[in-house]
Inverse folding.
């Protein structure tokens, strides 16, 4: 019997967002960094961190992961606008490795609990395309 | 071939969903989610977590990050979502 694996939704989402945001004219998207790594408090803004909160799969071809986008920006309005833009782009995205994205929670504006910086977030469901093992 | 008919006993199902046994299971799961939260706030104290049990048309429970920084912790770390996933729950938006 051949096994099936699912791609890492963090990497798929990061790559899709990098491509889509690079083509956007909105001011909130200019100069954005998209990464899976933690945000450096002294690092560039805007900054989008992609994480996965959890994953599940059903026999045999359905796999999904809960994707979290944490978005730091220079001010709260721009950060929330970027969060909404990311959500809109991903909900309409077609990309290798993912069947579709579905809405989950947010976007919501808040602040970084450690630095007080403006921080917005949202979560999405990434429905993944299985890969067959050789 | 004889056809079997299935009739749901809705009042009976509601009674089970409100029963003490189901309420205890729900409360145990909520406690498990709460105990999976291990973050600390900026002062170094543990992030306080509150569990509320209640009944609607069924036994239910809520888990809250009971601190002003709670939403920020969820935004930055996914504190509650990851705690729920570690307890075997799937977090969905409330439609």
């Amino acid at each position: 019997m051949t096994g099936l694996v699912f791609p890492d939704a963090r990497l798929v989402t990061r790559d899709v967002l990098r491509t889509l945001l690079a083509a956007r004219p909105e001011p909130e998207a200019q100069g954005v960094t998209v990464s899976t790594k933690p945000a450096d408090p002294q690092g560039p803004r805007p900054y989008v961190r992609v994480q996965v909160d959890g994953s599940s799969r059903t026999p045999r071809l359905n796999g999904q992961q809960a994707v979290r986008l944490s978005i730091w920006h220079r001010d709260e309005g721009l950060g929330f606008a970027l969060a909404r833009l990311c959500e809109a782009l991903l909900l309409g995205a077609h990309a290798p490795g993912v069947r579709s994205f579905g809405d989950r929670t947010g976007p919501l504006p808040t602040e970084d609990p450690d630095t007080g910086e403006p921080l917005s977030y949202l979560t999405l469901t990434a429905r993944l395309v299985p890969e067959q093992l050789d | 071939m004889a056809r079997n008919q299935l009739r749901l006993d809705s009042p009976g199902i509601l009674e089970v969903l409100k029963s003490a046994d189901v309420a205890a299971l729900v409360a145990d799961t909520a406690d498990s989610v709460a105990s999976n939260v291990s973050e600390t706030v900026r002062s170094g104290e543990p992030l306080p977590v509150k569990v509320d049990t209640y009944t609607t048309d069924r036994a239910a429970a809520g888990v809250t990050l009971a601190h002003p920084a709670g939403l920020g912790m969820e935004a930055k770390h996914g504190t509650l979502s990851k705690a729920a996933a570690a307890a075997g729950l799937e977090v969905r938006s409330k439609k």
